[in-house]
Amino acid sequence: MSFSTQPPCSSNTATTTVEPSIATSISTIHPDILQAHILNRLDGLSLVSTACTSTELNSLASQQDLWTNICHSIWPSTNTPRIREIISRLPSGWRSLFSESFPLTTGPRVNPPRDHDHPSELISAVDIHYKNKLIFSKVVETETSSSWFLCSPFRIDMLDPKDTCPTPIPNSGSEETCRDLAGDLSLSWILLDPTRLRSVNLSSHKPVSVQRHWLSGEVHARFATVLAAGERGSASESVQCGIVVTCGGGAQGGEMQVRGVSLQVEDMDGVFLNGKGSLGVLNTGFEGKKGMSGRREMEGRKRYGMFLEMKRERRERRLKKEGALDMLCVSFGVMVLVSLGLFHLLR
């Protein structure tokens, strides 16, 4: 028997390793798997980012059931027949609502609003969460075409004066409650124009200030959106859409109640606008720029702080002007008295 002495592989022979093929395209994954196990687990901002990555994902991420679930999860108040009917008429349905109502409104519209552009009705969808748990959800419809509404101070109340809403918010009876609410309370106030199919979220998401009333002991958490609504130098150059949540009741160590949730519009002179003036401001919000989605709380507090500073400076300028006028009036009065005295002496 003979054996070959030739090595199994010569030194000048290349060795080829065969690897199993790896799928590199998202299109090779079945759409049902993407929708059932991936896309439906994303939040709104992540879904928007995913839709920008490819044509296939953009199509899958545009499915209405995904956006319906996201909107109902963030804003339970939108799951009502009236609002569902309005959303069904939007160009992209629930995706349109998310893109208009999730970001902070940051800038004015290009053209000033016209009187005939005012909505004839407003719908408020409000949701309040404490430590990510829903504690308040309500929808209120407001008629805006009557002369009484247009001439009266603008105010939307989500609770009747005698109504209250129980909460798990502890009443410590100290500033600890205020600090707690500043970090753990969140609010969304979506305002819809059902005629022109527009929406805007007027909340800063987190409170811009939380204070305890010195007399009643109630805690007032303020949320705000600041809009540029008027001419430079005017009182309405910057206007605050302020939302106040009033919490009170309950013995110390017990749980507080939501006693009031209201929206008003205030200019830099501290004047609350009437219905007609407020509708013009709200038009700015409806048609304004949207942005700062990932930094809503920070940007909201920053814009509110700037509004307070502008309000303070405007008050100081007015006081100085009034002081100068008072001095002028006093000087004029003294001159008149001196003149009258000289007149009598000369007689």
What would your notes on this structure say?
37% of the residues lie in helices and 24% in strands. It is of the alpha+beta class and 347 residues long. It has two domains: 29-76, no CATH class; 103-315, no CATH class. The strands form three sheets. Strands 4, 5, 8, 9, 10 and 11 form a six-stranded antiparallel β-sheet that branches. Helix 2 runs antiparallel to helix 3 and helix 4 packs across helix 6. The radius of gyration is 31 Å and the shape is elongated. InterPro entries: AT3G44326-like, F-box-like_dom_sf, F-box_dom. It comes from Populus trichocarpa (Western balsam poplar). The chain crosses the membrane at residues 324-346. This is F-box domain-containing protein.
Total helical elements: 10
Order of helices and strands: HHHHHHEEEHEEHEEEEEEHEH
Report the principal-axis shape.
Answer: elongated
Question: What's the mean pLDDT score?
Answer: 83
Percent range of helical residues: 25-40%
Secondary structural class: alpha+beta
- The rounded Rg comes to 31 Å
Strand content: 15-25%
Ends distance: 160 Å
Low-confidence stretches: 1-14, 109-115
Brief characterization of the structure:
It comes from Populus trichocarpa (Western balsam poplar). Keywords: Membrane, Transmembrane, Transmembrane helix. The protein has 347 residues and is an alpha+beta fold.
